[in-house]
Protein 1
Amino acid sequence: KVVALCSVRECVLQRAVLVRKKLTAKEGGGWLSGTLFCTHFRVAFVPQDSPKPDDNADPVLLGDHDVALASIEKVVAVGPSRTKLVTASSSLKFTPEELVLYCRDLRVLCFLFDRLTPDTQAVEITYTIAKTYQPLKPGTVLSFQNAALGSVEMKQFLSNRRRDAQMNWFDSLPDWEQELERTGACGWRVSSVNDRFEMSTSLPKFNVVPQKVLDTELKKTFAHFNEGRIPRWCWRHPRGSDLLRMASFQNNIYHEKDDIRNLELILFGGQSLCVVVELGDEMPSPTDIQLAHTRLRALCLGDISTSVSVPDDKWLSTLESTHWLDYTRCCLRKAAEVACLLRGGHLTVVLQEAEDRDMTCVVSSLVQVMCDPHCRTRVGFQGLVQKEWVMAGHRFLSRINYHRDSDKEEAPVFLLFLDCVWQLWVQYPSRFQLTGDFLLALHDSFHLPLFSSFLANCQRERCKRSQNLSQSYTPVNGWRDVVPRGSFPDPSDPPLPPVWDWALQYSSQRREGFTQPGSLPALPQPLFNGNLNTNPELSDSAPGSVFLLSRGSFSCSANLLPWRSGGGSGVYRKSHRRGGSSSENLPGLERLLKAWALTELPQGHTTTISGLQGPLDPYEPLLPLLLGPCLGVWRDCYLRGALHAQAFSHPISSSTQHPVEQLAWEVQQLRDKLALASSPTNTVPAKTQEPRQTDSNLNQNTNNSTFLFPACRHPGPVVSRTTPPILNLQPMVPPVSSAPLSRPGPRDSSKHTFLFGHPSSSEARPDQRYYPAPNNNAKLPKSNGPSLGS
């Protein structure tokens, strides 16, 4: 049967009537009645009062209450006295009362069958979903894409689709030139020497290199680096420093005199100093990230099929053992060090990783989010991901492992980056135009194998899919990709849209929450490159000096550059001073922060912390607070299915709160009364204030001072959104409700624990207004300091 669901015509495999969907606290709580459908593409829930789809409206892939089959990880049927994990080969010997869908994006969807729902419909739709959803394989991924995008109407719609003109896609030479002009980067040019991917198969067609290096000379430098990933320009700080990234040097390569000259021209970029930041030793490996994320998923979701969940008193210690927050803290710390270095001016900072395809993406992106207000807007952030991840050759297809054929390479590095951005957004909400809803939408889209942004490991693979590329060999040119004349993409493969086509994924109401409005203030006096000198520890070094920043300290390793390791060149001497309290053994970040504190800001600029009101300096980096109370779990993402996974109850009146939510509300009322009683306007004995002082540390883990939720960093009344109550509750029996229950049956409530109460939707985060940087689309001033062109 073919019906129209959300303006997309699909083949309905099975349906069930009189079904109730459990709503999350963000959706208003309670239960929503409607009809449940299963198609070749998704599980769709259509509420009873939903309007009829408009045939003339643009199609939306997923409704607000839908889930794609590719996002489902397991299907659980809940009966009167048991639960069962349902697979394609399972035999269900009871009529399910509840259907629970565990999703790869950490959602848990609960559907309750009414007593009037035919038993055959409840059993059949459970079986149908379990048989239709399959562990992703190459064949199933293609069939899933055809089910979603393969119809004639959808192909025609996508072929006429125009991409966002406000966003920089970084897939053409003018796009890169626009970025150079926006950042005011002088002395750099866009090279197309890799336009056929001959120099490096994983690098994009266009790369930014110094103007003094010709393409004929540039070709000789690719052989000196792993996978040919040469040092490339990423971004220029308004104070004149440049950020580069590169892979490790190749071993046993003979460095000719001309090669050495070109390599040093690229590394220094016209500056007198170069700092190489080695990311291999300090940053987590992809294997570490995958293991931490797997443990975090198990902690947040539990397993309803075995009724196993972590006790309340062990939750925080278990969270600490996942090491996910440790890796988040590590990435933020390293990005803060690099941001402080770039603020000094007159140097290049080169991020180095063995393959330059994982942690360099994370750190370079975080540095730009911290320092560039444009990257904190929705359009700017999308361009940042497009530049530093999609075009830079991050192995999305291997790291996501859609086909389940590269388990050893699977690692959600991109999700770790999104978590780091969320931590910055929580600490500086008014400095971001994008919102947490936008980050959450990008997190969920990451798990759908529908978007060209995530279905390839590099630009070359995307080009091969969009064009029928064959290879030819000649003795002079070697292997080359050849586009046959008149060739077109395989008509059997549906066109894959980019992930940034939000109108194809979400309704207009959901998209409105991706940004927060704000008015542009008056344009301040620009800070020209080279005006300030805030790095005295390195400024007196000899020209051409190369430093290594590792574990927070500077060093001058003789093996840092292979062509310099043969002799004791004078450029490798350390910077010696006759006086002062600084020392080479002092951590580098601490010295930079000390120099930064002594720097006089231009008139009219003051530094602000965490969105406090006052004059804003858009050129100062957003340095995160990294201590335990300041980093928390991304609650809207990781814990949105926690209550569903740990406690199930039959529906009560839509106007009645869930027992756990009711209890959390009562606890919050008591907290508000305590805050009112301890206010300076009331005379309260000192004894009544003692519990108030220890209340903020209820969720502290003394192992590494990691907190589940970020605490308020300024003294004042406790705000529930920043320091929600952490409850250590014993198993409880929900109060008896007068509302009629559907499919009543015995339920062992002692197996479930209630961890978290949902905050009221009316609670607001303090000072969430967006204060945008002056004229984000304006061009940054060009450098007056040293450059390659001078």
Protein 2
Amino acid sequence: MADSVGIQQGSPAVGAAGLVPAAPGAAGTEGSSAAGGSARIAAKKAQLRSSPRPKKLEKLGVYSSCKAEGACKCNGWKSQNPPPTPPQTDQQSNTVNLQEPCRSCSHTLGDHVTHLENVSEEEMNRLLGVVLDVEYLYTCVHKEEDADTKQVYFSLFKLLRKSILQMGKPMLEAQESPPFEKPSIEQGVNNFVQYKFSHLPSKERQTIMELAKMFLNQINYWQLETPSQRRQRVPSDDVVGYKVNYTRWLCYCNVPQFCDSLPRYETTQIFGRTLLRSVFTVMRKQLLEQARQEKDKLPPEKRTLILTHFPKFLSMLEEEVYSHSSPIWSQDFLVGATGGQIPVHTVISAPPVARPIYYSTSPVSVDPSTCGSVSPARKPASVLESNPVGEKRKASEPLHHEENKRPKVVGDIPMDLINEVMATISDPATIPETSLLSAHSARDEAARLEERRGVIEFHVIGNSLNQKPNKRILMWLVGLQNVFSHQLPRMPKEYITRLVFDPKHKTLSLIKDGRVIGGICFRMFPSQGFTEIVFCAVTSNEQVKGYGTHLMNHLKEYHIKHEILNFLTYADEYAIGYFKKQGFSKDIKVPKAKYVGYIKDYEGATLMGCELNPSIPYTEFSVIIKKQKEIIKKLIERKQAQIRKVYPGLSCFKDGVRQIPIESIPGIRETGWKPAGKGKELKDPDQLYSTLKTILQHVKNHQNAWPFMEPVKKTEAPGYYQVIRFPMDLKTMSERLKSRYYTTRKLFMADMQRIFTNCREYNAPESEYYKCANILEKFFYTKIKEAGLIEK
């Protein structure tokens, strides 16, 4: 393979945005990135998977043992006209003859692939992915000069080769599985920040967190030196222990960046202080040297952080890394000096590693760093939509809806107190600053601030057949086509181009410095009341800045303005997490009759929807939440100041009193305490029976109650009663109700809840049964509240 990669000791690169993680270069090519290498391999896989089935069989036949009668020992079909070694994926010939004899055993190609006749297309494509990984490792083995690295490559090569022969998934066989040391590097750095900087003011502490994230990011992409290189540099070091960690790093962190058949882990999460000690000195020296050499290329806002604060941070961390008595590496670190418990929460988390692109039969392709979505073009809409070209979205643009005039709900808090606190919160000087890399900052905070400063802009654009072409918009459309093609390598460029330039599609484009860096392509169906999201991606060097979230928020406000309040998209398994964060769910609110015929149902994909609330200003939502938190904080502080009065202890117990009402304790009501709300317990047995019978009948009549009407049959669900120890169903509840078993509402509610809990425990979240349980549970509690058995 021309794109094979050799493992070399890399050095960090310092780019315009600060310190950028290094990646192994392509065999002898310095500066190639891991993302670029994996993207090239992913493109080759996409090309092979799009080939006709006979071509796929020919490719797999090379790695399949002969199944002909007579116990043939041939372990792979060999063509009479052998291709170059290793075999290439872009063979020019498209004709495949299954009767062509093998050059080794003389049996036909068909004899080598008989076991693949009934294999699904999805499984065949998975095996083809493993084949390309095998060929990639084959090249690595031959190009790698280091003996230890070559041995690991060869072992992984044999592992993947074996998995193809056995049609299984490759499993690394090792004495230990990740994580290999606790606490991990990530946890140790978290502890370090807590240990050394928890006393600092908020602004300075956020700076430290930014530095810690930067450091963790560097480790995750750092290229370890080979054991032989380390032996030459540090002769007295424990080379055996280092070799073990180096092998683990290759198998679990480095090679899986390019061979996505293998599971991928982050270095900072599976290794601990031992590995960090072995790389810290060299890493610190190279990082600082690189920063000094390229200081003129750093933006002004990053220069002080990297050249001044980062060296101090590394020096302090170095002391704790090599100290034998540092508490940050202790499992008991959570116990403070005073014996109290330090609150447990993650201060920093390393930026997520881009997941490899696995094959899916879903129509959705995902940019793994931005978790975007793609779905094919649908059937033409019955109504042609208007296509405003170059419509700009402004951050300050108001939302036009009557709900903006809604009255404020203040509960039992006096209005004058609310106004007083609001006046305090409105003063920017009183709101604590939050670092953009804070664990508590909003995902879109950085993007929102950049938009306010004019660094980025958002425009809704599209092609038009009725208007004179606009050169700038056409350039942006070309830029969007390039971004989507680069970030979504599994999607054919022709397909992306067709949709981006289709007049029925529009794209919310993200513009920075006059060029496109991201966008969301969508198609509106006004007559059906929903919009389909087609592509969503941000260019790789502009990721992890909140642009994806801010793009989606702008798209939501744009649709609220145009009175379309539902999004639909098909997502594969790697896009589901992204859409959940943006408010999407598998519970589709749009009636099926509205989208059937417009969006096709694809096997292996998950239809997700998002219902928009016209009362929410989405681009400013995180700011509103932040202010609300500050209001609550101020109210709590004022309340605490009012109740600091100390009351004498209770003396009634000395006089023989054994129990008193909680509300009689002096000062208890001043704290805001209220008696716990309780539902009405019906004391009349006949009244309770009548009420429960009515509720149970409503539940049984519900359209989603059908899975729970009778006990689960063993023939329909094998193993059900091994998983569910206490089964329950509506028929059993009816019998219990008839026999007057339910003497209290709690017994009745417990049995009903057990039905829903059992269903969710046994069935997968995407199953129809799971969805029915959720819907019926909501309906049940609505009826319980209506009957007054619990408080509303």
Protein 3
Amino acid sequence: MASAELQGKYQKLAQEYSKLRAQNQVLKKGVVDEQANSAALKEQLKMKDQSLRKLQQEMDSLTFRNLQLAKRVELLQDELAVSEPRGKKNKKSGESSSQLSQEQKSVFDEDLQKKIEENERLHIQFFEADEQHKHVEAELRSRLATLEMEAAQHQAVVDGLTRKYMETIEKLQNDKAKLEVKSQTLEKEAKECRLRTEECQLQLKNLHEDLSGRLEESLSIISEKVPFNDTKYSQYNALNVPLHNRRHQLKMRDIAGQALAFVQDLVTALLNFHTYTEQRIQIFPIDSAIDTISPLNQKFSQYLHENASYVRPLEEGMLHLFESITEDTVTVLETTVKLKTFSEHLTSYICFLRKILPYQLKSLEEECESSLCTSALRARNLELSQDMRKMTAVFEKLQTYVGLLALPSTEPDGLLRTNYSSVLTNVGAALHGFHDVMKDISKHYNQKATIEHELPTATQKLITTNDCILSSVVALTNGAGKIASFFNNNVDYFIASLSYGPKAASGFISPLSAECMLQYKKKAAAYMKALRKPLLESVPYEEALANRRVLLSSTESREGLAQQVQQSLEKISKLEQEKEHWMLEAQLAKIKLEKENQRIADKLKSTSIGQGVGPAQENPTGVNAGGQEEASTKAVLEPIHSTSLIGILTRTSDNEVPDVESREDLIKNHYMARIVELTSQLQLADSKSVHFYAECRALSKRLALAEKSKEALTEEMKVAGQNISRLQDELTTTKRSYEDQLSMMSDHLCSMNETLSKQREEIDTLKMSSKGNSKKNKSR
């Protein structure tokens, strides 16, 4: 399957690549055509420039011809001016000749006037044609520049797309190689999985055979040795003690504790709300300290004064319910008997709400009828009256569902087990409705308090009581929201915990069976505690075995130990004898040392005395002294051997007898050397341990860094996957944009062709008009 998917992906990618390649070729052709069109336009511009130059030359020739004609006209005018006086002189002589000259003059004037008008018209046409030609030329050049810019942009886009496509091709090739490697690995894994499945099938067959055999044995044992199956009938099964789920009980106790805290907050908020409402009635609209309030408000305040007797039992009932849920009990709806008392307290509080509701509505109506009440305040009072009705209705709804939940612990047929989940969901909906109603009350009361604070007759007592009522209402909304969210979060657990009960049954049938089951559970727990008697302290088994082996070995080697003791005693006695012997020798050596010191001192004295004697006497004394010194040096240089517990001490001393102090120094040096060696070994071991500790820390740091790098790499893998998906999306968008650009380019090319054709037609018309003008000028 994986290889087929990979092949399908690869085929799709190849098809996309071929499509992109074909689109690239089409784009290249379009760019080449555009370049050819731009070259043609350049040639057309050159031709137009040449035609413009020709027209300018013709215009120059026409201007030159006009100048010649103007000069000719001036000459004719001069001749005419000269001929006029002559005509005056010769009036009489040639009246006929004057008439002829006047006719000729009128003819010349008409011709001259026509040529001047025609020249002006030609000048105007030439100027208009020149201006139009310049305008067309500027437009064509601007269009050419824009077309060149667009061609460059299209070329850049084509180059960028080719680069992107080459990069995508490389990426796809790399992905193809990776996918091939993955396909190979997946094939290997598939082979391994097939082998494993075969092994698992064999194991399953063996297990099936084994379990079938065990089932037959167990069925035969049950049929032979089980006299009565109490789980077969639900009435008997309900008396069986279920498995103790300590986690479930702790969870239920924790939930009950949280619910108790929320109910306590709600009770305090309700008490504050009712008491501050009572204070407000005593102040507004009539202050009881100044004037007597209405009998309706008196009755209403009397009822509100009794709110604690109805609100406090709610907290007490919830506390009793919390105390009934312990670690040793089984908490289901059939065993929570204290829920009934909480339901009764809730019904009493709802009766209190029903009792005070009409008085509260009438009190609000009385406030609306007072002269201090404005239209906005009247609207707020009407909204508050509707909210109070909703609040009472929500509490009634909540009490009905709580009463239904309390039925299984008192009346088993009052509520079917299949309806437990729907009742719990409806309780959550009622709590959410209570929260919504309290939000509306807080909103409307806040608006009402702001309006009342703006009244000129608002006292400080009214402002403070309104603030207190607002704080209590906010506390009520917060408590209702917390209870609603808490119940919504735990409703799934409540629904799931309903199945907690006896084995192989739907649950407890009646409260009586549940109570019997709890009694049996207590008896079973007492029996288990009685069985758990504290054992006497004894030696552990392994230690006893080791002591037994030691005892056996000691009894077997008692004789050997006695022999070893005797041998050690003999060694001790020998060592003591050696000690005494060496002590005596040390004393003798001291005596000899003293004698030797005296003898050396006497010799030194005799030598000092005999220095004054002649050379004859010196020689024999010198020979004797030399012999004595040689003897003494021989005695000094001879090694002295001493055997003791430490070993053989071989040393050469200046004295004949070994010194005790020198021997003690040798022993001390030996032990000091040993101590130094041991300390060096200890330091080496400490350094090795420190080194190993540092290496361990470094390895732990490396491990932490490796884990961090692993997490970073996983995140990078996720980012890379996201980038791949993003690039695929970009590829699709670029395809679409590329197609849109191609369509736009084709439309633009069509519009350019149309404009070029129009320009050609305009140029042809201009050429035709210029040719006609030139012909007319030539004819003139």
